[in-house]
Amino acid sequence: MQSIVFWNGPSVKQFYNIPPQECEIGCNFILDHRKVHHVCCYDKPAMEILAKTPIEGVKYWTRRIFGGPFWNHFKSEIHHKRYRNISGYCSGTLALVLAVQLGAKQIYLLGCDWSLTNDSVYDKKYKWRRFKPNKTSKDKFALLEIISELVDLTIVHTNKRDFGPKIKWITPEEFTGGH
Known about the structure:
Elements: E1 2-6, E2 24-27, E3 38-40, H1 44-52, E4 59-61, H2 91-101, E5 106-110, H3 138-150, E6 152-156, E7 168-170, H4 172-178
Parallel strand pairs: 1-2, 1-5, 2-3, 3-4, 5-6, 6-7
Helix pairs in contact: 2-3
């Protein structure tokens, strides 16, 4: 199975109108712009907002500590060194782990602006935040590498960065030409 994962970096906007894909996973308020099959959310305030207006046919996912009647969760099989059952460190990494959990063999990651900006297309909706969080960390980069060892991970972006030897990169033009 192939999964498309929509992150919230500003570069994701160019992909909102691509044709529907086999398995689409988005983060937080993605449904404001595109209907996807799965929505991942990590922050409790965002979860509370999303739970007020659920969209039929969409499955909602969060971390295990917040699971409940509306929110699905899973026990990840991803391990790294002393960390077991890694389910992600934010909505974006949770979405990648979910794609693996659902059986994806190929993941295309859209809107990954790590190391370029900490901006999100939903910054105005994150009213509970006092500051813009740093999007990257050593653990998040390690998780990208782990996922690239398990499945074919391709980041779609014009600015290639060194995130790991097995992570592939293609341009938005190459992606939209094949999808």
